[in-house]
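note to self: dont lose this again. the chain is below, predicted strucutre after it. 163 aa total, dont forget to put it in the shared folder this time
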Amino acid sequence: MMIRKLMLAAAVVTLAACSTTSPDVVKRGDAQRLSQVQDATVLSVRAVTVEGSQSGAGAVTGGVVGAIAGSSVGGKREGQIVGVLGAVAGAALGNAIERNVTKEDAVEVLVQLRNGERRAIVQAKGNETLNPGDAVILVSTGGKTRVTRAPYGSAPSAPAEKN
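---
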């Protein structure tokens, strides 16, 4: 019963360390911040995978769970040896679980800005499906950029010339 509780705690800690590159998720620190917006057109979209992170939380949690589980085996001396082996195995397993849980299916979107420059942005698959030719906006906040479909009728006109 104790081991099940520890395994649940390990899963919760590992999942808490997850982060996403989804265009549909905005970090708390980015809320209510002014963002730069650029108009663009999608040139291509291709599926990619964002590799999982290794913050160390999975390894630490797995190591603790493995050590506790292993130390309950046999007598005092055997429990210590198996506890160390359990910690090593748990750390390796926890690290692998963290990498796998934080891996994301994503897309690389190649866009062309109005001035002719091209940009490529990788982001997790969001709720929108982007296709070549779609009008999009690039929203940049705090060094991060996300691509989303441009609101209809939102394309700004060229600035009026002053006489």
